[in-house]
Amino acid sequence: MIEFELKFKVEQFNIPPILEKMKEQKIVDLYYDTKDYLLLKKGCFFRLRNNQKVDFKMNGDIEHLYCTESSFNPEAIHSQNPSFCSLLNGLAIHPADSFDNLETFLKNEHFIELAKIQKERIQYRLDRDIIVSYDILENLGFFVEAEIHLNNDDKMQASTLKDTLINKLVQNKIISRKDTLIKVGYVELYLYKHNKSAYELGKFKL
Predict the structure, then answer these.
(1) Contacts of 178 (CB under 8 A, 6+ apart)
(2) H or E element at residue 143
(3) Residues near 27 by Cβ (< 8 Å), separated by ≥ 6?
(4) Distance separating alpha carbons of residues 32 and 112, to the nearest angstrom
(5) Which of 111, 130, 149, 201 fits 106 for a cystine, CB–CB 3.0-4.6 Å?
(6) Nearest to residue 71, comparing CAs of 82, 84, 81?
(7) pLDDT attached to residue 128
(8) How many Cα atoms sit within 13 Å of 182 on the Cβ side?
(9) Alpha carbon of 61 to those of 67, 165, 192: distances in Å?
(10) Residue 201 and residue 140: Cα distance in Å, rounded?
(11) Using CA atoms, how far apart are residues 85 and 74, in angstroms rounded to an integer?
């Protein structure tokens, strides 16, 4: 799945009636990386969300507009899962020992916790294909995130889609022209504040 995403730093939320509410939730994301920050340097992210889902985000463009996302149930993290092992190989991670769960994998490969992102999220639908999330992040502030899922051909139109989506968000008063488009993810914002040396190693910068 290719995820196209725009993120804005806002002073306050404006929720117009055109939006259709989908869900409200509290989210705890734990991000992991190797001790030498292999994934961060590549612009890839390995995340455990609410202890219920494992996500890998990779192959992002330099503007941080889109990425490829692969997701796994935590119970599916073991050395006999060909999809998971193939993904690791693509990231130049080659486990020396077998593993039968996520905890063992992290321990065997000496992964560290890169960031812990806690947020309250209210999610809405705009039109048929745009998901708008209002996020309150602990110690980071208020953000609006707009997301569309694409196929491989659509990502070639990312620049045009960016302008179209911004205009739609402004026209529907979800954001204003004064709101700041953030060209990094929440991990980089966290690292910039809490671990500047790791932030400097990353592919994406403020």
Answers:
(1) none
(2) strand 141-150
(3) 49, 50, 117, 118, 119, 120, 121
(4) 6
(5) 111
(6) 84
(7) 86
(8) 20
(9) 7, 17, 20
(10) 21
(11) 14
Residue type, 120: E
Do 87 and 110 form a contact (C-beta atoms < 8 A)? no
Q: Which two tokens stand for residue 91?
A: 């990231």
Q: What are the mean pLDDT values of the chain's consecutive 10-residue runs (206 residues total)?
A: 91 95 97 97 97 92 86 96 95 93 96 98 95 95 94 66 93 95 95 97 94
Collapse the DSSP code of 22 into the 3-class scheme (helix H, G, I; strand E, B; otherwise coil) and give the result.
strand
The dihedral through the CA atoms of 162, 165, 171, 175 has a sign that is negative
pLDDT at 65: 86
Look up residue 164 and give its two tokens.
């179209």
pLDDT number for residue 138? 87
Please state the separation of Cα 104 from the chain's center in Å.
Answer: 24
Phi then psi dihedrals of residue 21, to 5 deg: -70, 135
Q: Which residues lie closer than 8 Å to 186 by C-beta, 6 or more apart?
A: 29, 115, 117, 119, 137, 140, 143
Q: What is the dihedral of CA 36, 40, 42, 45, to 10 degrees?
A: 120
Tell me the C-alpha distance between 138 and 8, whole Å. 16
